[in-house]
Amino acid sequence: MLYRKKILLAIVELFGREINATDFQKILFLFSEKQIDRKYDFVPYKYGCFSFQAMADKNSLIKEGYLANTRNWKINIDYANFINTLNEIDRKTLSKLKQQIDNFSTEELIRQVYLNYPYFAINSEIVSKYLNEKETQIVNRFKPQTTTEGIFTIGYEGKSIEKYLNTLIQQNIKILCDVRKNPLSRKYGFAKRTLQNACESVNIKYIHLPELGIISEKRKNLITQNDYDNLFVDYEKEVLPNQQKEIMLIHNLIKTYGRVALTCYEALPKQCHRTKVADAVHSLDLKIPIIHL
């Protein structure tokens, strides 16, 4: 079993074998904030901090029989000792956290997180219920304010879905254009439907533009930078000239929404065709800056 899943089970076990969904996300968040080598990242969601990976792991643990198939987090086996499967530092950290928040109500737990980690309350639909006007103003200061036009590029290689989304949120990206030919991924969070749902849950519109992608056959055996450069010479010659409609669409999205990001897999901009797409859009209006995230 993955170590991070053991953390989930240990939390449920330690906090009474059943935890409501809101409390669980807050407890896992507070624990993760104290970890040296954190296993879960979070985004500012409609009820505060939220981990998509934790929810995916919950579904896996349900299938494996460890958790009951309910909205709550509930241990589904008679006996377990998951806390002792954690390393000593995590055991102590989790036990100390339990002592600190054991008597907190859901309302107190939400307020604790919102006050101490205001960034994660910026998309909350219930913030006014738990924070007063002065406290809410602090949360509002963490909302991204930059609205100047820009075309951004971002790859998801080496990123969790949460870290990836936080980068977009903090740059105030309004539209994410996926320029993969086939938006499939073995990495959790980046297959088309999952990515679209995740983006829209944090108020980022997702658009798939497969016409701007590169067929998989041409992406094989890319080893050196020269291999990539040759591929992109071919891409600029054979693909982009036939996709002016999509290039103009991206340009118009920038003019309408201000800040648009292009995404694909590779971490390095120089090894991804999204850079060539950005260049093509930039050529339509040299005042639009290109920013690689």
Written description of the protein model:
It is a single chain. The chain has a 5-stranded parallel beta sheet with strand order 7-6-8-5-9, sandwiched between helices. It has a two-stranded antiparallel ribbon with strand order 1-4. It has 2 domains: 3-141, no CATH class; 150-292, Protein-Tyrosine Phosphatase, Chain A, CATH 3.90.190. The mean pLDDT is 94. It has helices spanning 3-14, 21-34, 52-63, 88-101, 106-116, 127-130, 133-141, 161-170, 192-201, 225-238, 244-257, 274-284, and strands spanning 18-19, 43-45, 48-50, 73-74, 150-155, 175-178, 205-208, 259-264, 290-292. Helix 2 (21-34) runs parallel beside helix 5 (106-116) and helix 11 (244-257) crosses helix 12 (274-284). By secondary structure, the protein is an alpha/beta fold. Strand 2 (43-45) and strand 3 form a beta hairpin. The chain is globular and about 65 Å long. It has 12 helices and 9 strands.
What are the main properties of this structure?
293 residues, alpha/beta, Protein-Tyrosine Phosphatase, Chain A, 2 domains, globular
